[in-house]
Design brief:
The protein is α/β, with parallel strands linked by helices. It has helices at residues 2-17, 33-46, 74-89, 119-125; strands spanning 57-60, 64-65, 93-95, 105-107, 111-113, 130-138, 145-153, 160-169. The chain contains four helices and eight strands.
């Protein structure tokens, strides 16, 4: 009987010593394109050297491939949509360029492009104080790591007012 009691006590001690408390459980954040881009925009805005006026429009262009600035992808277009959404949530006026397609270069299945020779003209027509542009580079091993750089540029001087580069962790099937 004593042996049985000792066995039960040892069993219970070992069982409860293996249990972790809720504070010991590691919480895994849900990382995806939206959460990464929202965090990047928040940091971008926190690092601006120039004050952005909430009453003047901002233009957001599709992110483009650093290897060919004439090409974007689902990744680049969705990133731009999330950037525009987040800027709006911060209270900025973001100009929706798809509503006025004759004023900006929009390539089918590629997105809105702001060509450097047209940036001052487009910004002037829309009274834009800034243009958000970005590039991305795909890791040679595939789409697991996408290197992204975002910039807020003054359309008159072409001076970068703020920038943020980060690595997006993405799955190769999502952005082809």
């Amino acid at each position: 009987m004593k042996l049985f009691f000792v066995f039960i006590v040892l069993f219970l001690l070992s069982f409860f010593s293996c249990q972790s408390s809720p504070k010991d459980v590691q919480i895994i954040k849900d990382i995806n394109l939206k959460t990464e881009t929202v965090a990047a925009v928040d940091e971008l805005l926190n690092n601006c050297i120039n004050h952005l006026d909430e009453t003047r429009p901002i233009i957001v262009a599709s992110l483009v491939s650093v290897d060919d600035v004439q090409k974007s992808s689902t990744f680049g277009r969705m990133s731009a949509e999330i950037i525009a959404s987040r800027l709006t949530q911060h209270g900025y006026n973001v100009k929706e360029l798809k509503m006025n397609q004759n004023k900006i270069y929009i390539k089918k299945k590629e997105g809105e492009f702001v060509l450097s020779r047209d940036i001052q003209n487009i910004a002037s027509q829309h009274n834009a104080q800034a243009v958000v542009v970005g590039t991305y580079a795909v890791n040679k091993a595939g789409y697991q790591n996408i290197f992204v750089c975002l910039k807020i540029v003054d359309p008159v001087s072409n001076i970068i007012g703020c920038s943020k580069c980060y690595i997006s962790k993405s799955h190769q099937n999502n952005w082809q």
